[in-house]
Recover the amino acids of this structure.
């Protein structure tokens, strides 16, 4: 793909007014305009170090920051920590931004050279761009021209976090703006991108599109609920179609947005993660030193995921299965003392157990992923989130699977036995004529509970709890800190913070104490929700409505969450939601199996009588539905592919516009061919003598070929030679 | 992706010795070196025209050729046709080659600008490249700088063909070379590319790799045949694995070759096919006029393929099914008079019928594809060949399907009824105690016959027959032509050809009479063969050996075929075997179903007793095997993707090498940052007075931050203030 040739302009392109301003301005609205694009906070926690070690590390940190030309101010943080305020001088920041733009151009991520030369100083188009460059200055290795600060890792394990400051005014604006709008336009997404970078923006783009497209299943759901039988096949089909179309649409949308935000293929630019261990350094064809770790080795290592997932699946199945069995038994079968209270025991148990188990498994997954030794942070995250997602889906969907495919169909058969067995264990009296009847609504109730309560509880978990928690901790720490200094006894610190900085520092300390924001958690929540739809839609057609309402709030709530309960995310670039698309596709596929099975078992056949007939036709139903789904998906893909993406076409024609310039110049020359031709004819005559050209010089004279040809035609047609030529 | 900036060199790059030489040289080995890179033959058949019309068209043709600067010589052809010899002057050809190279660069197909300017004259790297440019000069529309000659279409419907001349010496060399080698290296493929262009070369690359990879199923087959039971599951699995791995390998290989041959993504460059009908011309963003035909319309039109294929499938099923039933009946059931002869009637019937039916259906398919109105020849070919392929597979595989899944399992049941029924029709005596026993070897025999005879017959069809045919026709025509001129009576023509041209002209006339070569036919043959393996491998494990042997000859035979029985193909460029990969994948997928079913029916269960049990477990078997296959395929893809393609990596690092030049210059500047830093510090001091900078100027002095920080650490650690600083 050709690129515009970089012109070295006479003068450096003029620069936007830079955003240096009163750091304290926030406190008096008069000077409210304050720069957040060039500031970064590093939290140095030396509680585990003695004075000398701490000071060593601090001086190392400061000199590393100095070495790339960053400015520092130090203030005390909570407990035994220091806040190192980092600011990039306008020349340095502007220059870094320019460099990274040029680099984007060189790697073909943007199509136009930004102009300017290697000393150019430009202002980023938005805070995110500036902060990204600042982030690179801080975190990139020294070879890449960064300070090589890697919070919590290796040399810098005592740096508990490094984060940019929230921009409260713009956060405020954004929130107000979004809460007014029902639908988010791409421009609104741009605003999010400007604040927190594309990686986060893509999540909001996804939840927005997903939310909108939910309108369709909502309508379908209401209709199905009103007019269709329970466990309706038609509804299942509709949902399956919706899932497919939405996914294929999203894939195109992802490309469009990544072109809009100039991040398409940005993955290539990602640098090695500090934890990456390489075997040797090789100099490749292009003469660059590459840190080589054999691919096949990583592949082999990644294969360990298979046993891991297999085992943890089995484990979870056993745990959940047991609790499930117990519950069923107590609820349906047990009629001894305290049964009213006992009913809740298993559920409570599970509620208490699962978090621990999951947490433990996730730790294992993290270790495993670490062992896989991925080169970039991206790959690492992908690999990890995928593992975690599988674990989550198991603990989320398994109960429903058990109800649908074990409890309801087989309950009649095994529960009495179970009861007898347990009672015999308990040594209780077995009532021989105990009859048990499966509650065929259990499935529906279970799905409703799981989805609805899920939404609510997650909302509380995400918003209310952390809010209270942080505030409490915050209050306590403020008290402690001030207290410390009161007791500290050094004259220098008696008065604590300088009063004009106080409020600013309080804000920073608060943010320093906040958690790091991981966008994948929010995405996985949406994916799990999507999964309920894809897998169990026929059970209760009104599910989508709940989701629709929830997601409208979810979107806004997540923005609040980021602004209040998390440190401002470093504006990392990404060109999509990455591996989640694959997860969504897997769920849709699986859905074509499960919903078919559900319809088959609960829709076609009386849900309480299961003959052999039910069972041996089941695989056929599943098989059919799966292949109809696959066929349909292929169709949709083909069609959407044929229609193609508007942005891609736009991009192409932009490229073409540049090429055209070159082509024109080339085609201009084709005029000359005429004379080439004449020249050639002369040449041909001149060489007529040489035997080699005999053949090609017979009809060289003007019109000779024509006369010869005409003669032949006449001859072959046997028409009279002397008749006047009609065409003369 | 950045490209090297086109330097305008002082002097035009010096040119290889051009290949103009004695056209007649072929006849005396002394002057054997002759140029085929700049000659094209146009056959003008005016048998349907009267003299004046014919001469009009001829003059139009000649002037169009002149207009782009091509040289012409005319000689008589067979019957009422003229041979228009077209030759491109070296300046014109060299310049066109240069242009198309620049165009490749502009469209990002090659990474390096070829250098030179718009008047540069270069020699193609090989005949194919030159001929391709000549082909463009002839066929491209006038707007694109071609003569707009479209043989057999529109204005030029009387041009029966236009083709480059075969290069007998190099053909000879190639054949000898290949017949000596057992394995073809990429260099050998290069030779084919040099002669006939990438489109043909890719076919040979495919058959070569396919042939090699067949070695594995051969060995497996022998082992299975020796040690495994009939219809062995293990063997079916092995073959399925092999299919998958081979396909995934081939996909990477395709990319590698297309990079090696500089044709990656060459599809973008394809021009509109003359038959393309557009609705309106729109000027797009880049200001180019585009012939617009709404995408959705094409999609809708393409949907007509569904009913078409459905109907023709049904139709073929009925035809083949009937014949099949008749045959079975006569062979197994009928014992009336002449049964010995009658046995063969149905087979003969089918053999006579099928070609007609297929031919007719293929004509329909062609019409349909025409109606779909594809923009480029490529799309048209793809769409057509895919349709034809489906039809072919039906008539090839259906008989086996019928035997495997109808005749053998159900024969016992329905054949007696069939017999009774037909006899009752025939009014013959029904023998009540007639017992029929399925010949459970029928399936194996059928597969063997179909595959083996298929190979042999196709070999005859492709080689022997056409050879005889052309020679006969050729002899007859030569006689006729000379005869005509003897009778012609015009003094000018009495002597017929100029003796020194005679042999050359005979060769050209011969080639003019040959058929156009369609590479897709050869590919589809291979794909069908692959299909037998993928679908029915467990039936007879020795099949692959037959294929292995056949394909070694097939490869060479196809080269002979092209050189002797076809006009030299125009060197069209392609970056793969296109849609055939999809067909191969479809077959592999289908294979995971069919071979599972075969193993289930013939392997697990006694092939003559089919209980309900057999049937209701069948879908489960199929379902399982399919999903194992899909899982495995996903795994292979993931692994091969992770390993990646060597060429792609090479390409990337070449790109990088170019970028690096720019980057170096940019990174050089980062040295300056040090002083930026100093400057900044001065600035900060100077502005200390302004309130806004109070915060950021407190620790501006050298080491101030450090001292402050150390103080705080000490304070917080509560260690004595006056103790000497360890690190000083």
């Amino acid at each position: 793909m050709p690129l515009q040739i970089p012109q070295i302009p006479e003068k450096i392109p003029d620069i936007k007014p830079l955003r240096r301003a009163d750091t304290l301005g926030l406190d008096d609205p008069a000077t409210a305009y304050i720069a957040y694009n060039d500031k970064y906070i590093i939290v140095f926690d030396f509680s585990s170090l003695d004075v000398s070690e701490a000071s060593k590390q601090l001086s190392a940190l400061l000199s590393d920051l100095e070495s790339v030309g960053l400015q520092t101010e130090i203030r005390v943080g909570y407990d035994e920590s220091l806040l190192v305020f980092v600011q990039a001088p306008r020349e340095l920041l502007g220059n870094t931004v320019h460099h990274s733009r040029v680099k984007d151009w060189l790697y073909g991520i943007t199509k136009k050279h930004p102009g300017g030369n290697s000393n150019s100083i430009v202002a980023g188009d938005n805070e995110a761009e500036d902060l990204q460059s600042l982030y690179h200055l801080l975190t990139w290795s020294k070879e890449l021209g960064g300070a090589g600060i890697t919070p919590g890792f290796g040399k810098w394990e005592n740096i508990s976090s490094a984060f940019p400051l929230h921009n409260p005014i713009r956060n405020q604006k954004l929130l107000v703006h979004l809460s007014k709008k029902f639908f988010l336009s791409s421009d609104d997404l741009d605003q999010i991108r400007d604040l927190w970078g594309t990686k986060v923006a893509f999540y909001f783009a996804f939840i927005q599109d997903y939310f909108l497209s939910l309108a369709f299943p909502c309508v379908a759901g209401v209709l199905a609920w009103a007019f269709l039988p329970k466990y309706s096949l038609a509804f299942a089909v509709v949902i399956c179609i919706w899932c497919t179309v939405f996914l294929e649409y999203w894939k195109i949308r992802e490309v469009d947005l990544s072109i809009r935000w100039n991040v398409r293929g940005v993955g290539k630019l990602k640098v090695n993660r500090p934890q990456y261990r390489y075997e040797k350094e090789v100099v490749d064809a292009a003469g660059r030193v590459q840190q080589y770790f054999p691919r096949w080795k990583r592949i082999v290592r990644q294969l360990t995921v298979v046993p891991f997932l297999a085992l943890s699946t089995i484990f979870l199945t056993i745990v959940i299965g047991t609790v499930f069995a117990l519950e069923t038994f107590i609820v349906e079968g047990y009629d001894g003392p305290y049964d009213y209270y006992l009913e809740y025991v298993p559920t409570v148990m599970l509620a208490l157990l699962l978090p621990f188990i999951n947490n433990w498994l996730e730790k294992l997954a993290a270790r495993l992923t670490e062992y896989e030794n991925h080169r970039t942070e991206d790959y690492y995250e992908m690999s990890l989130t995928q593992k975690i997602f599988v674990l989550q889906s198991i603990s989320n969907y398994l109960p429903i699977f058990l109800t649908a495919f074990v409890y309801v169909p087989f309950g009649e058969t095994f529960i009495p036995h179970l009861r007898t067995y347990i009672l015999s264990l308990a040594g209780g009296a077995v009532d021989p004529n105990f009859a048990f009847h499966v509650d065929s609504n259990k499935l529906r109730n279970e799905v409703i509970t799981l989805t609805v309560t899920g939404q609510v509880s997650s909302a509380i978990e995400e918003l209310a709890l952390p809010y209270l928690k942080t505030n409490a901790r915050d209050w306590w720490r403020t008290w402690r800190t001030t207290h410390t200094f009161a007791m500290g006894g050094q004259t220098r610190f008696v008065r604590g913070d300088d009063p004009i900085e106080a409020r600013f520092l309080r804000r920073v300390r608060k943010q320093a104490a906040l958690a790091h924001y991981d966008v994948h958690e929010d995405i996985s929540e949406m994916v799990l929700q999507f999964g309920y739809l894809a897998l169990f839609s026929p059970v209760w057609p009104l599910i989508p409505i709940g989701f629709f309402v929830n997601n409208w709030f979810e979107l806004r709530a997540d923005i609040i969450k980021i602004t209040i309960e998390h440190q401002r995310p470093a504006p990392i670039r990404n060109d999509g939601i990455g591996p989640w698309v694959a997860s969504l596709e897997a769920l849709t596929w699986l859905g074509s199996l499960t919903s078919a099975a559900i319809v088959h078992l609960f829709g076609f056949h009386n849900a309480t009588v299961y003959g052999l007939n039910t069972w041996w036709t089941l695989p056929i139903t599943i098989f059919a539905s799966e292949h109809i789904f696959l066929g349909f998906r292929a169709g949709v893909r083909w069609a959407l592919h044929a229609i193609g993406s508007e942005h891609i076409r736009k991009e192409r024609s932009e490229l073409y516009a540049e090429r055209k310039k070159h082509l024109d110049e080339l085609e201009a020359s084709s005029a000359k061919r005429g004379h080439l031709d004449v020249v050639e004819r002369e040449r041909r005559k001149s060489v007529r003598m040489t035997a080699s050209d005999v053949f090609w010089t017979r009809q060289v004279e003007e019109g000779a070929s024509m006369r010869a040809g005409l003669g032949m035609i006449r001859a072959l047609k046997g028409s009279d030679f002397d008749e006047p030529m009609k065409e003369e």
